[in-house]
């Protein structure tokens, strides 16, 4: 009986900690709606974890969770918070003030994480501070219901009442008061959390409306018509244009920024900028608009990986804006060799100035596949630079461009062991048959995509079980900045076989078979699949 009483009291204390944690997060949700959603403690701490994680850990997360890596991190933080809350609840059962102080200390951690983010400011501390104060107060109140004075010992000479023989005194507690306090705190906090979500939704509604109301202009320089035969129409083969909903997303934003297009501004300044510029979306819309088909790839893409996609982009040439600001590339005597793009979420991406101004279709993109940029892909404006991996070119939610040098500044990913400059490598992938597929003997189409942005693909070859290379049939080429489909008709025979593919780019360089990981500047090696023909 004594053991069960202690266990029940401990369980209630842990439950009280959970309730206090819930109240804390709900209060923080409400306050973050008034400050900004990114200032919430879970988002702030999650962002701090991402910022301080080594490159190997980030690669592990992307490899195992894909585009769900941020959700996995948030769930992990919530689980840890729940465990911490229960432990603090049990601590408060024996040390009431110490338990409440622990909640305040954890709130301080959230506040420091929020303010310490690259885009953080003093008001960002408020959600964590208020949430911690609410959580500490609720925990103190609930624990008070569990820590009333112990019952008086039995009078001398009395019978062997329950527990008296052991000399143990069990705490009596106000069960009814605990239940009422817990119910009221939970109900009020749930209401606060719902109100916070509604406030956040109302703020975001303005951004959603601004995207809905944005009418993309007819391009002054439209993309050339896609040649007939660009798509091979083979089952299981990636489509030439990747639908927006399927386009890969790899970034560090736990909360996707939702910006109102009317309030968006971009500042261009720095070394070698003779005339600093600040432009809004409507300023861009009045300029020459270009439309181009460009394939983007992430440096985290392993050999044969999914983090690549092709889209039709609409935007303004970035080189034109830089020239208007008086910027000259290094080849023309300009002092800056690096363009540092900053996102509203604090991300910094360093791009070679020469690559932006060498004539390629580097742009500030406004549209993607015929519609305004989706929020997850950078609305209202993002950078797109053909031929470079995204971490050195494709800044989403861009708000600032600073001209500097690679010697003077290391951007976000460079400080985390990645290379300063990273042109896309020549790669190829087998889309069909899938690994461990079981095709029938006979003619089996082996098909996939190959890419070498800004160089183009001139040849793709396939081999079986390490044998001779066979030349695949290429689709019609759109341009040298897009991927290219290919197919080889394989006379399959029964048994287990290994298929490999390699590509040759427009310069005549053939994809290397040497295996290398993604760090520091992209994976290399040949993609292979194993199939059982039966």
Oligomer: single chain
First-to-last CA distance: 66 Å
| Envelope shape | globular
How can the largest sheet be summarized? 5 strands, mixed
Mean pLDDT: 91
Counted beta strands: 18
Order of secondary-structure elements: HHHHHHHEEHEEHEEHEEEEEEEEEEEE
Structural class: alpha+beta
Strand content: 15-25%
Strand order of the largest sheet: 2-1-10-5-6
- Tally of contiguous helical segments: 10
User: How much helical structure, as a percent, in the residues?
Assistant: 25-40%
Radius of gyration (Å): 30 Å
Unreliable parts: 157-170
SSE arrangement:
Elements: H1 2-35, H2 41-52, H3 55-65, H4 69-94, H5 96-115, H6 126-146, H7 175-213, E1 265-270, E2 277-280, H8 281-285, E3 290-297, E4 308-317, H9 318-324, E5 338-343, E6 348-352, H10 353-356, E7 363-368, E8 371-372, E9 382-384, E10 398-404, E11 427-432, E12 442-451, E13 457-464, E14 470-471, E15 473-474, E16 484-492, E17 495-505, E18 527-533
Parallel strand pairs: 1-10
Antiparallel strand pairs: 1-2, 3-4, 4-7, 5-6, 5-10, 7-8, 7-9, 11-12, 12-16, 13-14, 13-17, 15-16, 17-18
Helix pairs in contact: 1-4, 1-6, 1-7, 2-4, 2-5, 4-5, 5-6, 6-7
Describe what you observe in this structure.
About 35% of the residues lie in helices and about 20% in strands. Helix 4 (about 70-95) runs antiparallel to helix 5 (about 95-115). The chain has 10 helices and 18 strands. A hairpin with a 2-residue loop joins strand 7 (about 365-370) and strand 8. It has helices at about 1-35, 40-50, 55-65, 70-95, 95-115, 125-145, 175-215, 280-285, 320-325, 355; strands at about 265-270, 275-280, 290-295, 310-315, 340-345, 350, 365-370, 370, 380-385, 400-405, 425-430, 440-450, 455-465, 470, 475, 485-490, 495-505, 525-534.
